[in-house]
Write the structure tokens for this entry.
Amino acid sequence: MILYEDGTAFTSYSLDKIVTDPRDSSTYTSITDIGCGQYMHAYLTNSNELILYGQLTDRENTTKKFDLKAIMPGFTIKQVGGGITHLIFLAENVTGETALYYFGKNSLGSTGLASNTSRYTPQLWQLPFFLNDKKINMIACGGYHTMILSQGEVYGVGYDDNGELGGAPRGDFYAMFKLKTPEPMRYIACGFFFSAMVSVTNNVYCCGSNQLDQLGIGAQQERACFRIHHLEQFSHRVSRIFLGSNHWYVLTRDSELYYSGESRPTEMHVGHVSSKYSGGEFVQCNVPKLSTSAMEIACGKHISVIYYSKEKTKLFSGGFVDGLYLIGSKSRRFTDLMIY
């Protein structure tokens, strides 16, 4: 999914006339933000509509529209997170109060409900008492788990048999709890079955499945990390992190980009994956140094896409370890990218 500053959004799915050319005023709706899970796309419009597209209730692609003024009175969506079968919306009102809403299947506790219940209208998430009156700063969704960042503290719910929530499997996927993080965090992100965090002192931590050496902690006999592991090679120098299903990138404050994970694309063709591995260690990508604000990466299951120019007009895809491949260059500026 690609969002341009002029409000045009593009996707690999064949959408209906909602997302179209802005010159066709009869069918154009300005898109202000985008988000996606594996089978669902979310579009926010300047008319305060939420448009969902994909396998919303079954395997057939359908479109649903929701009036956010009716569903979330007084609130505006600030972030959309998506897993395999669920979407989470972080909303905020004019006084700074935050609320969470969920949509989709509660597979393995990913939306914190008491059972595998499905909800196909966005519902207010009744958070546990220990999050009452706390401001939610960020959300992140994995395959079947969800993480919440609140004032430096990290909370989790959902599937954790691989340690994706930073500890030994609890057996109770449906109960939210506070993670025992080594220090306060400022950023969280989730892959399919692993998670990562950036601290307020710019350290990076990870936990979860290491079946495909995706954690960057070295190829090990252990196939899961049931603790929040500190990646010491990036101590106090991390700017941002970007997680895909089984691979991820670390962007340092001095604009160096590092990669670790299952495998990497080596050609510009979307979906073409080589049999190469990073060997369980982070490797530096061969990219020119730019301001960290000039870079945005979206990671999916096997591919990654990046816009990488000071003007944010050039779009690249492919193997960042082997090189960047230009797949699009427009006069319009990109504002957001999403892949699942």
Remarks:
- The helical segments are 68-71.
- The longest helix spans residues 68-71.
